[in-house]
Amino acid sequence: MATIPDVNALGASPAPRPNNQVARYDNPFTHMEHVPGQAMEDSGRAIVRQGAHFQEFGEQIQAEQAKVDAMRAEDAFNQLRNKQMELAIGDQGFSKLHGVNALQKDLIKDYGGKFDLAQQAVADSLGNDQQKQMFARRAAVARTQYTHDMLSHVAKETENAKDNTFKGTVDVEREAATAN
Questions:
Q1: How confident is the model over 124-168, as pLDDT tens digits?
Q2: Angle 141-145-151 from CA coordinates, rounded to 5°
């Protein structure tokens, strides 16, 4: 039982007594129980923000690559169109063949093959499949136009050849009639 000190004990330090209790431990983190969870949540939010930045950066890269691909495909198409004009109206172009000369050759096969070789050479110069696909779509339109131009030229020259042949026949028959 506890004793109350008397007057003689004033100013004297109390006598040590053995403590039969377990020593108390104050956890310095007891007031921070939510901190590990909060830190993980903050880290997660930071990762999500960083992921959003990476996604935005990736989208920008894709957009720029799409621009580059479109530019390269358009440049390739311009090269093909130059070759198309050369094959059509150049010094050796099919439009330089007139009358029977335009009909004696297999113009569609010969000049169509030249166009196809030019198209393949330009396509082979492109850097990736996306560029090649974009170019192929544009080249198909150019091939259709080119074929139309060749067919129109052959039709026109066929009419000219028919007219010239008819005139030649009339002239020959007239001479034959006047000779008798």
A1: 999 999 999 999 999 999 999 999 999 999 999 989 888 888 888
A2: 145
Q: CA-to-CA distance for 168 and 174, rounded, in angstroms?
A: 10
pTM: 0.67
Distances (CA, A) of 3 to 6, 14, 15, 18, 133: 9, 11, 12, 15, 101
Decide: residue 90, CB within 10 A, 0-12 exposed, 13-18 middle, 19+ buried. middle
CA-based nearest residue to 95, from 145, 162, 164, 152: 152
Between CA 160 and CA 132 the distance in angstroms is 41
> Per the structure block, which two tokens stand in for 14?
């109390």
Single out the residue of 84, 56, 180, 79 nearest to residue 126, CA to CA. Answer: 79
